[in-house]
Amino acid sequence: MKLPPSNYTAVELQNQKDDELINLMNKLEIMDKNRSRKYLIFYSTDNPSLEEILSGTAIVSRAMSPDIPPVEWSFLAIYNIIEHFRSFDFIEQLNLNDKKLLFQFNTLKSNMLCGAWRAQTEHRDKMVTPSGQQIFPDVLVTQFNTSPELLNRVCCQIIGRLIELKVTREEFVLLNVIFFSNAHSESARNILSKQQKFYVSALFRYCQLTYQKSAPSRLNELLSIYHIIQKNTSEMQYIGIMIQGFIPNFPIKKLVADAYITHSET
Question: Which residues are in the NR LBD domain (predicted)?
Answer without folding.
Answer: 42-262
